[in-house]
Each structure stands twice: as C-alpha cells, then as structure tokens.
Amino acid sequence: MLNVLQAAQTLDGLTYQEDYILNSRGLKLFTCKWLPKDKEPKALIFICHGYAMECSITMNSTAIRLAKAGFAIYGIDYEGHGKSDGLQGYITSFDSVVDDCSNHFTAISERKENKGKMRYLLGESMGGAVALLLHRKKPDYWDGAVLVAPMCKIAEDVKPSPIVVHILTKLCNFIPTWKIIPTQDIIDIAFKVPEIRHQIRTNPYCYKGRPRLNTGHELLKISLDLEQRLGEVSLPFIILHGEADRVTDMSVSEQLHEKASSWDKSLKRYPEMWHGLLYGETVENIDIVFADIIAWLEERCDLGNSRIEKQLKTESDLQTK
C-alpha cells in the first residue's frame, strides 16, 4: 500500500491524523489515527466500523475515549464506505474488505516503534465480522478482540424471507448494485437516541437507503459462514451486546461465547440497550459500556504480552540451535 496524503491536528491531550492509502486494487482508502500525546500508548487498537458507517465522525467519540485511556487507535474506511473510493454502500467482496484491513493493520503493527506493543481489534456490528475474519486470516497475530454486537447472524427483524433471499441472490448476477433489498430502516432500530439518528442521517459519509443487492448477499453469506464456524475462534475476546438489539442476533453472541475455543472469553449483556452501544445510547449507558471495555483491555495489558514472550522464546531457541 502507498501513502498518498497526510493531514494532522492536535486535540485535547491527543494527536489526530488522517491519511489516504492505495490498496492492491488501486483504490484510495481513507485511514485515520488517534494517539496519546507525549506518552507511549499502552497498546494498539484497530477499529472496524459497521455497515454504512465510517471512522472519522461516527467512531470519533469511541476513539477519543480509548485514546484518552492511553491506547493508540487506528481506523480505516472500507471500500465503498466513508471517505474511501468505491460506490457508496457497495461491497464487491467481503474478502477484499478483510484483505484491505489486514494489510493496513499489519503494516502499522510491524513498524519498529510498534513491534513490542499488544494488538487488539475492536469491531462493531459488521466490523465484528471483519475482526473475526482478520483473526481467522492470522490466528496467532492478534492479542484480543472487543466485539460490539458482532454480526455473526443478521436478526430476523431485518432479514428478508428465504424466498426473497433466493430471488435476490439470483438477481445479484445481473443488477448487483441496485438498492432493492426490502428491509427496515436500520438507523431507526439501531440507535436509541434521536439526536444520534439525526447526526447519522445528516452525515454525508454514512450510506443511507436500502442495501445494494451484492452488499446484502455478501453480508448474509459471511454471517452464515461465521455462525457455522464459531468453534474456530481462539483469541481472547469480550462480546458486548444489548438485550434489545434488533439488528444482530444476541443468541449467536451467546453461542460464540459458548463454542469458541478461546481460553479467555467474556460476554456482557446490557438490559434494554439497543444495537448502537458505542455512540447510540444515553451518555450514562455509554459510560457503562466503555468502563467495561477499558477495564477488559487494561486487565490484559497488565498481564503482559504472552505473544511477544512466545515469539522471543522461539527466536532464542532458533539462535541456540
């Protein structure tokens, strides 16, 4: 990937920076980062935003909270999302989305100044699916994941009937970009606070309208795949899910917690909270969610980096042979 533009600004105790990079398909992708000012970050956190969302505005409050807690935060807008190239709201291939994130996040992790730092993924909704697939791609690379209402299964409330799904799947071959998937307005059922719904609707970088055909097909295909392979998840993780979520299915988050082979796994359920836990709830509820996230991250940072220790031991063993 090639860096093509850079802009930076200083926030209260933080440094915020924007970049554009070129991916392997020649598309310009928007990236950004929030860093604690004048101190070494406790760990690296890579944020994976949800469907139709973006990083620099909708995930800004999330990144600032985590950066103020001492973490370095890195984000990327997927192809067809936010400020990145591509038809807005259109996912050509979920594999390409995962590859773009993997290439960018790995490049950051492998920088000299980051070699010894722990690496965490934070995925919201569809971003939770991205995080799980990043782990599948490199099972031993990440130190943990924060999964916020992860898209391991699309809730029945927003999923078309099986007959409609069959017809739409066939149509994908002919009109993949058309916005004809019948579904509820996701913004209305995902975010509890009306002001947040208004902010998202007036954000030009958030996609509005019905899902495009191939996008819906890719989301359904990958959620079915994840649901069938929950036992392959082996990294430390915490799942956070609102009990009143009507977008992603909390029962599959419970199955992920039960079936994952991870030795370190946690599940937090929030009564009466909706899908948008990070910025769509009341301030009091958001405070509760972030207290849980930060406590989980700091506890694991305090335990030390077992991945680095294992890597150093392997290198030492190789040198003595």
Automatic annotation (TrEMBL):
Residues 40-278 form the Serine aminopeptidase S33 domain. SUPFAM superfamilies: alpha/beta-Hydrolases. It comes from the Eukaryota. It comes from Citrullus colocynthis. This is Serine aminopeptidase S33 domain-containing protein.
